[in-house]
Amino acid sequence: MKAMVLGIFASFFFAVTFVLNQLMSDGGGSWIWSASLRYLFMLPLLLIIVCTRRRFVPLLKEMRQHPWQWAWWSFIGFGLFYAPLCFAATYSPAWLVAGTWQFTIIAGSLLVPLFHVSIDSKDGLTKVRKRIPFRNMGMSCVILAGIVLMEWSQATEVPIRALLFGMLPVLVATFAYPLGNRKMMELCAERIDAYERTLGMTIASLPLWLILSTYQLATSGFPSGEQSLQSLIVAVFSGVIATVLFFTATDMARHSVHQLATVEATQSGEVVFTLIGEVLLIAGTNISLAGLIGLVLVVVGMILHSFMASIQRPSADEDTQAAMH
Questions:
Q1: What sections of 89-159 are H helices per DSSP?
Q2: How far is 301 from 142, CA to CA, in rounded Å?
Q3: By the 8 A CB rule, do 239 and 39 touch?
Q4: pLDDT tens-digit readout, 34-45
Q5: What is the pTM (predicted TM-score) of this model?
Q6: d(CA 243, CA 102)
Q7: Is 124 left (phi over 0), alpha (psi -120 to 50) or beta?
C-alpha cells in the first residue's frame, strides 16, 4: 500500500512535465531545450542531495563496476524516455500525451520476460526468465481501449502526420522508461537507493543532453528565460521529486512482478492531474466527448488493475515458482 501511495504522489509531480512541456511548446520553445535543460538542472540538485548524505563516493564505485551498462540503460531509461515526450508535445495536447503515456502499464508487463529471477535448485542457484503476468493484464485492455479512443478522437481533428508524431514517440517512451528503470534495479540490486540511482543515471545520460544542447545552441541560440524557468520547475518537481518517489516505490515492489505492475499502474493518475492542470493553465484547451470517455476508461482501468493485483498478489516465492513454469 505504501508503494502505491508513493506512486500516486509521483504521478502528480510527473503531471507537471506534460503541462509545462505543452506551455513551452506553445510559447515557441524548442523541444530539445525542454529535454536537455531538465537533466542539466537536475544534476546539481541531485549532487547536493547525494553529497549531503555522503553517498556520492559509493555511487561512483558502483558506476565504475559497470560503466557501459550504466551508460546504455541510462540512455534508454532517461534519453529515449524524455526526448520523445518533449518532441510529442510539439504535436499533441498535454492530456493526449499523458493519456498515451499510460501504455507504459502494458509495456511494463510485456517487458517481464527480459528479466531473470534466481532460484535454488538441485544444480545450485539458477536464473530463469520471469513470465508475463497475464492475470493482471486483463484490466490493461481497458486502459488500452481508452488510449485507442483518445487517439481516434484526436485523429478526426488533426492531420495524420501530426497524429503519428504525437503518438509514436510516446509509445517509444512507454517501453524505454520501465526497461531502463528495471534494468538498473537489476544491475544495482539494493546497493544504492533511489536518490543515488537517479543521480547516477543523470550523470550517465549527460553525453546525450550535452550533444543535443550543443546542437541547439549552435543552430538556434540560447533558450528564453521563460523556458529556462519552466525547465527548472520541471527538473525539481518531475525530475527530482517525482522520479525519486517513483524509483522508491518500484524498489519497494521489486521482488514481485504483480506489485511492480500495480505501482506502475498508479501512473495513470497523471492523466487526471494533467487534464486539470491544462484546463487551468492553458487557454483554449478542448477535449471531445470521445476523448473524455477515453480518459475515463484509462483511469477506471488503472483502478481495476490495482484492485485485481491486490487481491491476486502472490508472495515473492510464488513469483519465483511462476517463473519456473
A1: 94-101, 104-110, 134-137, 140-155
A2: 5
A3: yes
A4: 999 999 999 999
A5: 0.80
A6: 16
A7: left
